Fold this sequence. Notes:
This protein has 276 residues and is α/β, with parallel strands linked by helices. It has a single domain, classed as Rossmann fold (3-Layer(aba) Sandwich), CATH 3.40.50. Helix content is 46%, strand content 13%. The chain contains eight helices and seven strands. Strands 3-2-1-4-5-6-7 form a seven-stranded parallel β-sheet, sandwiched between helices. The longest helix has 29 residues, at 107-135. The chain is globular, with a radius of gyration of 18 Å.
Amino acid sequence: MGRLKGQVALVTGAGRGHGEALALRFAEEGAAVAACDILPADELDAKVGARIREAGGEALCSQTDVSEEEQVRKLVERTIDHFGTIHILANVVGIAGPTKDVWQMSLEEWRHTLAVNLDSAFLGCKYVLPEMISKRYGRVINFSSGSGKQPLSHRTPYTTSKMGILGFTRTLAADVGRYNITVNAICPGSHEERGVELERARAEYRGDPFDEEAVRNRYQEPRPNAVLAGRWCGDEGYIEKGAGSGEAAAIAVFLASEDAASMTGQDINSGGWVMW
């Protein structure tokens, strides 16, 4: 369709889930994609880069721990050296963190979750924004969560990091709007691998049995209702698993396109779990 033709997109956490969906969808829309993940670069390239090239697109894959400043600096430098610039930055990467109560977790567990989920967005913007400012153009898309707006029991560092993303998004949007740069956030539904992680961790916390097959089957079930009202209307027959990576990727394409040129500082829910 070519809505992003001629653009260069840097996508973090591209090895699975939302990040993988964004990388593939951006390429489908005409963007050259720099994809990074904690996975070895050859594995990421086989999983994502090769598919982009087979479809006629351009891809550059890198192994990067986006919570480490020097690795992010080198990632951005390599992307600009290879493609010439960066128009779109999608800070997608995130980890679930521990399923524990605050008094049970270590400071290291707390800091690691915030480093991956929140510091990574700061670092990506720190090193990409100078390029966008010099071009007087850019699109920053951060990934929060429905948990960025409401509590998620026994997952304090995760929820704190996702609430932090919303504050970061709004303040940064105010700071860079004068450079024709928009900054928005997506609060997506879950994807299969993350859903399995969360359900397993919660079962372990509660001492309950865990049925991985049953969890995965929920992601494969046909969706009888198109309206995603999540838990709010469960008694009306609506589905409860919410929107997935495909819906999040579609919103990201919109935010990266000229159709959203005057939209900034916003957070969009795609999962149906939260309605504010």
